[in-house]
Amino acid sequence: MRTVYLNGNYVPENEAHISVFDRGFLFADGVYEVTTVLNGKLIGFDGHIERLQRSLTELGYKHKVDREEMLAIHRELVERNTLEQGMIYLQMTRGNPGDRDFAFPPEDTPLTVVLFTQEKQIIGTSVESEGLKVISIDDLRWGRRDIKTVQLLYPSLAKMEAKAQGADDAWMVQEGFVTEGTSNNAYIVKGGKIITRNLSNDILHGITRKSVLACAKLLQMEVEERPFTIEEAYEADEAFATSASGFTNPIVEIDGNKVGTGKPGPVGDRLRALYIEENLKAAI
Ligand code: PDD
């Protein structure tokens, strides 16, 4: 059984309880982060903590995240659960006001803070060699996708639609242009150039995205940050997606159209290799 963290305590997962009045439960009033663990070490930790602070601030939370405290909790959970490879999920909500009310509770209401580990094989999976199939779907999410909130119902519905169509994931499309995957950032490669949507409120500012684009620079690859259409993606030489829990994953089919050769492409493969090398060096 896992040991999880809840509001200052390390408890067995079946003893971690949250109020029915919690704002996270009633209003999806919460934010989260997913940090990958490789060889028992944290990947991209500081980026996740910075984004967590930004998400909280954008939603009017006054809370200041204590990096050292968070690092200690992450490390304690890795140790207590002997996690070698997987993720740490962190969620903070606006807490328990003791009733249901649209207005925010008083500012001194303690936040609910939950962290737990998830085991997952991240390197050496069949996805690396076989790639993933995606479908396209209308992006019906709210307009502040740069905030990592726990309102994940639409991405979850999109994932189920993908599965119903025999695919692995969905790329969401707004006014003809791809925004991102259900839980990852989207890229295509055409004529050696990497194309990915520019940062705005339309997409999550991926921690993996930032690191992968830095790797592309190291490899002297050309990058164009701009929206691309789903039709451009059908015609791409190669496509891939990035996320903390998947690193870079090749996309080999979009809406039933083979991307390039229909096999993982060399640009994604090289980026994945360098990403792992660089991030293992920097893991804490
Ligand atoms: N998802 N876009 C969306 C909508 C996401 O949910 C995620 C992450 C990303 C990639 O961000 P990062 O590289 O910082 O992980 C992009 C996490 C992994 C999840 O929900 O499980």
Portion of residues in helices? 25-40%
Silhouette: globular
For this structure, what is the CATH class of the largest domain?
Answer: Alpha Beta
Distance between the termini: 25 Å
Tally of alpha and pi helices? 8
Largest sheet: 9 strands, mixed
What ligands can be seen in this structure? N-(5'-phosphopyridoxyl)-D-alanine
CATH arch. level architecture of the largest domain: Alpha-Beta Barrel
Secondary-structure element order, N to C: EEHEEHHEEHEHEEEEHEHEEEH
Total domain modules: 2
Query: How is the CATH topology of the largest domain named?
Result: D-amino Acid Aminotransferase, Chain A, domain 2
Alpha-beta content class? alpha+beta
- Kindly estimate the percentage of residues that lie in beta strands according to DSSP: 25-35%
Count all strands and give the number.
Answer: 15
Mean pLDDT: 97
CATH superfamily of the largest domain: D-amino Acid Aminotransferase, subunit A, domain 2
Rg, rounded, reads 19 Å
Low-confidence stretches: none
Q: Please, could you describe this protein's structure?
A:
It contains 8 helices and 15 strands. With 284 residues, the protein is of the alpha+beta class. It has 2 domains: 3-119, Aminotransferase class 4, branched-chain amino acid transferase, N-terminal domain (D-amino Acid Aminotransferase, Chain A, domain 1, 2-Layer Sandwich); 126-282, Alpha-Beta Barrel (D-amino Acid Aminotransferase, Chain A, domain 2), CATH 3.20.10. Strands 7, 8, 9, 10, 11, 12, 13, 14 and 15 form a 9-stranded mixed beta sheet that branches. A 6-stranded antiparallel beta sheet has the order 2-1-6-5-3-4. α6 packs across α8. Bound molecules: N-(5'-phosphopyridoxyl)-D-alanine. N-(5'-phosphopyridoxyl)-D-alanine (PDD) is lined by residues 34, 180, 183-185, 204, 206-209, 242-245.
